[in-house]
Amino acid sequence: MLNLQKFVRKIKALKSEGVIGVDLGTYAIKAVEIKKIGADLIISGFVQGKVYENSLINGIIQDKNLVAKVFMNVMENLSSPFKKIHLALPYELVIVD
After folding, report:
1. Using CA atoms, how far apart are residues 25 and 53, in angstroms rounded to an integer?
2. DSSP one-letter string for the chain
3. Are strands 85-88 and 56-57 parallel, antiparallel or unpaired?
4. Which pTM was predicted?
5. pLDDT tens across 14-56, in order?
6. In sequence order, which residues have a C-beta less than 8 Å from that of residue 84 and are 6 or more positions away?
7. Which of 14, 31, 66, 80 could bridge 55 with an S-S bond, Cβ 3.0-4.6 Å?
8. C-alpha distances in angstroms, 32 versus 43, 53, 80, 92?
């Protein structure tokens, strides 16, 4: 829960009006638009696209063209004016020193 609280504080501290969160999952790519209205954060959009079979396995991209196609489709359907993106990474791919 502490990580979520830190994330919310960082989003609220941004000077922009909103951000996009993206999760590259094995079965779907999901994108959420979060708008900042005053001191509140509002989810103003959500889109997900089904990932082609075996193109993304355990967070590792196997076929970059297919994953890029789904990602671009998801972002086009979200049609957000915001450019700042927060990407969720699988724990196995995060290097901690």
Report:
1. 12
2. -HHHHHHHHHHHH-SSSEEEEEEE-SSEEEEEEEEEETTEEEEEEEEEEEPPTTSEETTEES-HHHHHHHHHHHHHHH--S---EEEE--GGG----
3. unpaired
4. 0.77
5. 677 888 999 988 889 999 999 988 878 889 999 999 998 888 8
6. 14, 16, 19, 20
7. 66
8. 7, 23, 9, 23
Q: 58: which 2 tokens? A: 């355990």
Determine contact, residues 52/25, Cβ cutoff 8 Å.
no
Report pLDDT digits (tens) over 56-72. Answer: 887 778 899 999 999 99
